[in-house]
Design brief:
Blueprint (H helix, E strand, L loop, with lengths): L4 H13 L18 E5 L2 E5 L4 H7 L3 H12 L7 E6 L7 H7 L8 E4 L4 E5 L11 H16 L7 H12 L4 H11 L7 H7 L4 H22 L3 H8 L5 H9 L3 H22 L2 H36 L9 E2 L5 E2 L20
Parallel strand pairs: 2-3, 3-5
Antiparallel strand pairs: 1-2, 4-5, 6-7
Helix pairs in contact: 1-4, 3-5, 5-6, 6-9, 7-9, 7-12, 8-9, 10-11
Length: 348
């Protein structure tokens, strides 16, 4: 979700354009002229020209997405909300241009929960931390639901991490996003992650990855109901107190433990398992095997030379001498040397 003055301008413009009040009111009866609508329970999808096919694919899935987000967070929608599908080709009319104006170019979705209005940029839906329009819808739905919980005030890092956690599972791309940023730098404190959501694409990706990692780690550490418990306690307590009541420990302690484990998981472990070090180890083993084989061959050749030196230069039955004095033995007099021992099996 994108916030800030630019988004407020876009949200207010949309609210005026759609003749909606600032309260949590149901959506207005119909979309602008030329737009298509799909009412899917609490979520109303609007598709300007160019987004019709996305509307057809997303509309049947929207009720399940909203229901799953509601179940995960333990919050029911207070009223219907609207999501506008921005075509992959970008805004094509003045209404959509005013809706989408001022939002960061990297944003795949945004939500103004107080107006119950959001948008999905279909052309950006594949980027981190989403992956699909369905994930963007789940993410923005989670923002709307957390806003609907009475009395809840959350730090942005927790809200964004929870929205991502409610939208999808932890994946290898998340590991890469986090590992690639903390190999040479420290993990930023949770309280400083909020600034990253207002930064450029790289800063936002780091903020999303770190906040998602902490929420995922916390749900694994304290149980799957952790997020629901924190949100429930946040209705009547400040967030740090809600965290302690839900987990039994202070937020500062949870963060210290997470940072310690995250540094091992996402810095040292990837370094130890990096392809460069693996191939360096393979090369060292290969050189060692080659050296041992060469030493065996030299020792074997030396033993053969010693055998030849001990042999009589002219043996009985020799019929002739080749130039250089080497005996030419008849076939029945030839003595074949013992076959050398087979080389060691290759190291695997």
């Amino acid at each position: 979700m994108i916030r800030g003055a630019a988004v407020r301008v876009a949200a207010v413009a949309l609210a005026v354009l759609l003749a909606m009040s600032a309260g949590a009111q149901p959506p207005s009866p119909g979309p602008p002229v030329g737009w298509r609508e799909a009412r899917t329970g609490a979520c109303v999808l609007w598709a300007p020209p160019g987004a019709e096919r996305a509307l057809e694919r997303l509309a049947p899935l929207a009720p399940g997405i909203v229901a799953e987000a509601s179940r995960t967070l333990g919050i029911e929608p207070a009223a219907p909300f609207r999501m506008v599908l921005v075509p992959a080709s970008g805004p094509r009319d003045s209404v959509l241009e005013r809706i989408d104006a001022g939002v960061a170019a990297w944003a795949a979705g945004y939500m103004r929960p107080e107006f119950r209005i959001g948008a999905i940029r279909l052309g950006q839906a594949a980027r981190y931390p989403y992956g699909t329009p369905e994930a963007v819808l789940a993410h923005e739905t989670a923002h709307q639901l957390m806003h609907d919980a009475p009395g809840v005030t959350l730090p942005m890092w927790f809200e964004e991490g929870t929205a991502t956690w409610a939208a999808r599972e932890w994946q290898m791309e998340d590991v890469f996003q986090l590992s690639s940023r903390i190999v040479t730098r420290e993990l930023p404190p949770l309280e400083r992650l909020s600034d990253g959501f207002h930064g450029d694409a790289g800063e936002a990706d780091q903020a999303y990855a770190a906040s998602f990692a902490f929420v995922s780690w916390s749900a694994e550490r304290y149980g799957g109901s952790l997020v629901r418990d924190v949100l429930r306690e946040s209705r009547t307590h400040p967030f740090p107190r809600a965290w302690r009541l839900a987990t039994g420990v202070a937020l500062e302690r949870s963060e210290r433990e997470w940072r310690r484990e995250a540094l091992f998981r996402y810095r040292w472990l990837p370094l130890l398992a990096s392809s460069g070090l693996v191939w360096l180890g393979v090369l060292a083993i290969s050189i060692g095997v080659w050296t041992r084989r060469q030493a065996r061959r030299r020792a074997q050749r030396a033993a053969w030379d010693a055998e030849e030196e001990r042999a009589d230069p002219v043996e009985a039955g020799a019929e002739s001498l080749e130039p250089g004095g080497e005996p030419w033995l008849t076939e029945w007099q030839r003595v074949e040397p013992e076959s050398p021992a087979p080389p060691d099996a290759p190291v695997r």
